[in-house]
Structure formats: structure tokens, C-alpha cells
Write a structure and sequence with these properties.
It contains nine helices and 15 strands. It is about 35% helix and about 25% strand. The strands form two sheets. A nine-stranded mixed beta sheet has the order 14-13-12-11-7-10-9-8-15. A six-stranded parallel beta sheet has the order 3-2-1-4-5-6, sandwiched between helices. The radius of gyration is 20 Å and the shape is globular.
């Protein structure tokens, strides 16, 4: 039986608690907020802690999921990986790519599974899109157009929209093109937050293939969409409803698929990797590269020029 502890049970970590309980692997949790600790101790009938160190000292865990704010991921990850625990860190892996590289190298040294919460890889609509592209029915993907827009209640206090939100689409673009971008150009601005709250990022891939990423925390309507323009058709997916639309020369096809919770699929996959000692779909190195691309986007928006990258 795999025993998992959740670190940070705020807006998102509370979903980890629920899903891991359902998967029958939830062993303990911690959060610096005592009110949350008491509430979830009662709800799930397990012991919670107000400090990471206390939880790690008292509990015999196999793995943890880290759902604290981005700026804390490095310090907490160094502790859990250092203790030899398989570690799932919510996106983005770390505040800086340099910190991410240290986590990756420690995980390698300790032979620990390290993965990052780029959840859209487990979205059934993205899984279906990958299948459609693989079987060639719409030809080769050339252009990706992402929209991820929603007014934000201001709960993210340590990073802006690029590190928090655009990173999902940066990862999906790499996943669809199966390559790292060579060029990043971005424009960002802020109207209601302390950090940038709207961003447009252009990622240039091999053979002029391009991803166009629009993210914002400003507009009131919640939109999460990807249009994939291919040589023989266009595939549109909605990340929220998981609907897929395929348009080719002759017809529009809307395949009917059952909605499934991406977090359930994502955490189940992590637990399976822990059980079988298999490498995760999203490796620590992916997390580092995504952070490097986001960092390049922020620099590009400051200097007004494209940044050329050579990612391993
Ligand atoms: N995959 C996704 O779709 C998705 C969605 C939302 C958030 N996230 C990620 O999850 C993480 C958390 O985001 P959130 O929205 O839940 O933030 P949040 O602020 O709502 O929750 C963070 C929680 O961590 C606790 N905390 C802070 N420092 C701590 C520490 N040192 N030890 C223990 N607990 C600590 C806080 O008290 C709080 O309860 C971020 O990395 C965010 O990017 C991912």
C-alpha cells in the first residue's frame, strides 16, 4: 500500500486530499493554517500537521504531493526528495529554473520519482487530440492557438500569469509538437494585479511551426481553448468541457466522450509510477524547461525582443 502525504491544502491542495482519499492512498497532510488542518482532519479522519518537518518526522510516507505556493516548492522539494520520498510538485516546478535543476539533480542522486503537475496532459480532450494527430486524419499540426482567460480573485501572490497560467499551454505546445521551442517572444502587462496579468506569448518551433498563447486574469469569462491548425483540418478542444471538434474539407465531427476528472487521472498515474518504479510522463526536466521558457517570455516582454533558446 502506497502512503501519500499532501503538503499545502489550500484552493488546489484540497482537491489532492479528496482524490488521494478516493484512491485509498491518503495517509496524512500538513498546512501552516491550523483552521484547515482541523477541518480536514475531521473530514478525512487522518492526522494533519501545521509543519512539514513534523509530518515528515512522524509519518512513514512513501510519497508526497506539494501544493504550496510556487515560491516554497524548492525548499520543501529539497526536503522530501532528500529524505528519499517520491515527490509530485504542483506546477510550476519552482520559482526559478536554477532551483528546478537542483531538485532534478537531487532526485537523480536519490533515485526518487519527481514529477510536476502539468495536468492538461491528463485532460481526456488533450489525450484524444494527441490520438487524432498521431493517426494522421487531419494531417500535420502547424499552428496552435491557446486561450486561457478568467478573472482572478487574486489568490496567487508570488508569480504572475505567465508562471502560473501560461505554463500549462507552454507544456501542451511542447507535448503536441514533441519538441522544445527555439524562439520565445512575449508581450505582457498588468491592469489589476501586482504581477503581469495579461500575456501573449509566441513560441517558435522547428520548420516554422508556432504556438500562440494568450493568457489573462482580467476578462470575466472563463475560457480555456486550443485550436490546432493542421495541413488537412482544424481541431478545436475545450479544456473545461473536454469537447472536441474536428473540421476538415467536407465535414465537422464532434466525437462524444465521457468527461473524466484530469486530477484523478494525473494522481492515479503518479501512484502507478510509485508502485511500479516507472518514470513519470512529466519528468523533472520537463518542469525545468517549461520554467526556462516562461523566464524567457518574461525577459522578452521586458526587452521587447525575441529570445532564442537551445533546450536539452
Ligand atoms: N494544476 C492545476 O491546475 C493547479 C490549479 C491551481 C493551483 N495549482 C498550483 O498549486 C499550488 C498551490 O496553489 P493554490 O491555489 O492551492 O494556493 P493557495 O494559496 O490556495 O494554497 C496554498 C496552501 O499552502 C499553505 N502553505 C503555504 N506555505 C506552506 C508551508 N511552508 N507548509 C505547509 N503549507 C503551506 C497555505 O496555508 C495554503 O493553505 C501552486 O503551485 C499552484 O500553481 C495548480
Amino acid at each position: 500500500m502506497v502512503k501519500v502525504g499532501v503538503i499545502g491544502v489550500g484552493g488546489w491542495g484540497k482537491n489532492h486530499l479528496r482524490v488521494l482519499k478516493e484512491l485509498n492512498v491518503l495517509s496524512s497532510f500538513c498546512d501552516i493554517d491550523i483552521t484547515k488542518v482541523k477541518m480536514y482532519e475531521e473530514r478525512y479522519g487522518i492526522k494533519g500537521y501545521t509543519s512539514v518537518d513534523e509530518m515528515l518526522k512522524n509519518e512513514d510516507l512513501d510519497a508526497v504531493t506539494i501544493c504550496t505556493p510556487t515560491s516554497t516548492h524548492y525548499e520543501i522539494g529539497m526536503k522530501t526528495i532528500g529524505l528519499g520520498l517520491d515527490t509530485f510538485i504542483e506546477k510550476p516546478l519552482t520559482y526559478s529554473s536554477r532551483e528546478g535543476e537542483e531538485l532534478v539533480s537531487l532526485a537523480r542522486e536519490k533515485n526518487v520519482i519527481l514529477t510536476v503537475g502539468y495536468i492538461e496532459r491528463f485532460n481526456p480532450a488533450v489525450i484524444e487530440l494527441k490520438k487524432i494527430l498521431k493517426n494522421g486524419e487531419v494531417g500535420e499540426p502547424l499552428l496552435l492557438e491557446f486561450h486561457r482567460e478568467n478573472r482572478w480573485a487574486g489568490q496567487v501572490r508570488d508569480v504572475g500569469v505567465v508562471m502560473d497560467t501560461s505554463v500549462h499551454d507552454i507544456d501542451t505546445a511542447r507535448w503536441i509538437f514533441e519538441k522544445e521551442p527555439k524562439l520565445v517572444f512575449a508581450r505582457t502587462g498588468k491592469v489589476i494585479s501586482d504581477y503581469e496579468d495579461f500575456a501573449t506569448i509566441i513560441l517558435g518551433f522547428d520548420r516554422e511551426k508556432t504556438a500562440f498563447i494568450t493568457s489573462n486574469w482580467v476578462t470575466p469569462k472563463r475560457v480555456r481553448q486550443l485550436i490546432t491548425v493542421c495541413t488537412n483540418g482544424i481541431v478545436t478542444i475545450d479544456f473545461i468541457t473536454q469537447e472536441i471538434k474536428i473540421d476538415d474539407n467536407e465535414r465537422t465531427i464532434i466525437p462524444r466522450k465521457e468527461w473524466q476528472e484530469p486530477l484523478m487521472l494525473e494522481l492515479k498515474s503518479f501512484i502507478d509510477c510509485v508502485r511500479r518504479r516507472e518514470p513519470p510522463l512529466i519528468k523533472g526536466e520537463d518542469g525545468v524547461n517549461i520554467t526556462k521558457i516562461a523566464e524567457a517570455a518574461l525577459i522578452s516582454s521586458q526587452i521587447g525582443s525575441p529570445i532564442y533558446l537551445q533546450l536539452g
